[in-house]
Design goal:
By secondary structure, the protein is mainly alpha-helical. It has one domain: Orthogonal Bundle (Arc Repressor Mutant, subunit A), CATH 1.10.10. Helices cover 55% and strands 12% of the residues. It is built from 4 helices and 3 strands. Strands 1-3-2 form a 3-stranded antiparallel beta sheet. Helix 1 packs parallel to helix 4, helix 2 crosses helix 4 and helix 3 crosses helix 4. The longest helix has 20 residues. It is globular, with a radius of gyration of 15 Å. The chain starts with a helix and ends with a strand.
Length: 113
């Protein structure tokens, strides 16, 4: 499973780079799907105004690493801005106030510019 996810992330990264540079020569169904996902992620962040990495990944049912690559495309374009919170967001488990056991990806938010 990990190897499959690594291959998918590598493929998404490659597609994002080629889309950003405008060097797509042949449009395949996979390229169209990735392009539609990238656009959908942009629209989701625009609609919400502010969304965490975990929320976006959960909404699109994608791994956070793949979503990060797709969001990097819009960050380079200047459409979306990455904001890292110094203080933790509300804990999903509601077990503590310091959130020392929570994942750091919860502190990453993306804002529509």
């Amino acid at each position: 499973m990990i190897k499959k996810q690594h291959v998918v992330n590598k493929f998404v990264r490659l597609i994002c780079k080629t889309l950003y540079r405008g060097k797509i020569r042949r449009v395949t169904p996979a390229v169209l799907i990735i392009a539609m996902l990238i656009t959908s992620i942009r629209d989701y962040v625009q609609l919400k105004g502010r969304a965490s990495l975990q929320d976006i990944a959960r909404h699109f049912r994608l791994p956070e690493s793949a979503v990060t690559q797709m969001l990097a495309f819009w960050i380079k374009k200047g459409t979306i801005k990455l904001v890292e919170q110094n203080q933790p967001l509300f804990c999903q488990t509601n077990q503590c106030h310091s959130c020392s056991s929570c994942d750091l990806s919860r502190n990453i938010e993306y804002i529509w510019c």
